[in-house]
Each structure stands twice: as C-alpha cells, then as structure tokens.
Amino acid sequence: MEAPQYVAARVQGALAEDERTNELGIRVDVRGEQLFLRGQVSCEERRELIADVASEAAPGLVVRNELTVVDVRTPEEEEKL
Amino acid sequence: MSLRIAAVGDVHLGTDMGGRYRSHLTGIEEKADVLLLAGDLTRHGTLEEGEVVVEEFRDLPIPVIAVLGNHDHHSDKPAEIAAMMREAGIAVLHDDAVVLDVNGERLGVVGGKGFGGGFAGKCASEFGEPEIKAFVNHTKRIADRWRTALKELEADRRVVLSHYSPVNDTLAGEPPEIYPFLGSYLLAEAIDAEGADLILHGHAHMGTEKGVTPAGIRVRNVALPVLGRAYGVYCLNGDGRC
C-alpha cells in the first residue's frame, strides 16, 4: 500500500500542474481512506474543480472538500502610515 | 496632501470570471488615488486570461500600476500580457520605475515580479549545480535592478511593488518549509539600502498582511485571500493623518 504522504504529495502536484486548476496553495492531508482539502479559492466552481482533480489523482479515497470560497468585502477602512 | 494607495494581488482571473472583480472597483476613486496590482492577475498566464485582466482594470478613474506574478508566467507569455495591459493604459513594471503626479506630489513606484531564495540564515546560495546558481542569480539580478531603479528615482513618495515577498514577517501562516519559494531577503536588502516608504507584495495566500523590513520599512501582503477585501488602502503622508 502506498504511504499516505506520497499520495498527498501526488495530489498536491496534480493540483499545481493540472491546467484545470494550477493551484499552489491547497493543503492536502490523507488520513486512512479520506483525503482532506483545505485552503481558500476564488469561487464555488473552482472549489468543485479542485475536488475533481484531487479525486482523479487519488482514486479510491473519499475526498473531504473543506476548501472555502474567499468572501471579498468592499474595503471600508484605510490604514494610515 | 495625503496619498492614498489601493493595492491587491493574486486576483487570479480566469476566463470564466470576467466582470466579477470589476464590480468591486466601483467608486474606488473616492477611496484611493492610485491602484497597484501585485501580480498573479491570471490563473495560467494565457492571452485569453490576460484579456480578462485588461477588461477588468482598464479605464478606471485612477491610474493603475501592475507587476506580474509567477502564474502570469506559466504560459510563457508575460511580455505579451504586459503589452496588452500597457496598450489599455495600465503601467506594468519589469524591474523598473514609474513616477506619477498625484495631488501635486510625485509618487515613484519601483518593482517587478521579484523571486525566491529564502531569508537570511535559511536561504539558497550561488553555489554548486548550475540550476541552483541560476535560481539564486535570478533573484540577485532582480534585487540589483531594484537597487538601481530606487537610486535613480526622483520622487516625493517611494513605493516598491512586488509579487514575491521581501520579508518573512508577512509569510506567517504559510508552512515555513516553503518560505524559500515565497520570497527572498535580497529584495529587502536592496530596498533597505536605498529607502522606500512602503513595500507591497502578494504571492503568499496564507500569510499575514503586516510586516516590516530590517531597516523599518512597512511591508504589506496584499494577496486577496489575506486581505479578505477587494483591496487594501494605505494612506501615506508621513504625519499619520489622512
């Protein structure tokens, strides 16, 4: 059986290199039969696409998609320097 | 007069995102005098995504100055994307400077993509295989160009705009193991030598907004996921009032 660290590294590599995602900042953890995705993405479609690419790179694992979509607020405050 | 600088990086616009970010820019002229973009404007650096960037940031009521990021280099078309942006009136820095007249003050912005290598005491050296030498040398050359641009800059206010980080303060939250891929102290060393009022960067999505260089220059990580708002606004006037 492949060590979970190598599976996580393969998924992380796929997320960075797959043209559909090219995401570098996603945290990937494998625990038993589960694969956890954590981090922030720009929209819901992207969140789902990342889970799809991760699932393809690690078939057989249950993907737990814990990615959150960045909530872009309108700036209200300014910092005085 | 006060000088209000809006800044954001890492908007990562794809071809499916046209108009989404633009909606947040309505009324920006009420909040800021200039908008600085800290790279990673696209996802894959394709010309199609470059076109989305152009449409998103063109014809704003305030000047826009940008640098590109590593994502904008992925399809080997950074020069073409920069040319498209310049054609639309957006200044794109490539290790050089631009000076704007804002409210009667000369705002000088120096910058470019920057690069990695790590931070003092925990960094790569120009030693060993050609690949490692090339990696470190790329950062050194960029830092040298910034030093020269800052030395020659004639402006009342001096801002450095980068994609990669010059300090590790603003990386807090990122895994320390990847710091060498997020920035380099060589950039800060060059800026500290010549002086600046503010440094803006992106790239580190899980980092922290506020930091400072060893010489005391304020650094702000304006990556969109770090800010959580459409852009940060930083008011420079030296006396703490806006």
Automatic annotation (TrEMBL), chain A:
Residues 3-71 form the BON domain. InterPro entries: BON_dom (IPR007055). Pfam families: BON. It comes from the Bacteria. This is BON domain-containing protein. It comes from Planobispora longispora.
TrEMBL record, chain B:
Gene3D superfamilies: 3.60.21.10. It holds the Pfam family Metallophos. Residues 3-206 form the Calcineurin-like phosphoesterase domain. This is Metallophosphoesterase. Transmembrane segments: none annotated. One of its GO terms (molecular function) is UDP-2,3-diacylglucosamine hydrolase activity. GO terms for biological process: lipid A biosynthetic process. The lineage of its organism: Bacteria, Bacillati, Actinomycetota, Actinomycetes, Streptosporangiales. GO terms for cellular component: membrane. The keyword Hydrolase applies. Keywords: Hydrolase, Metal-binding.
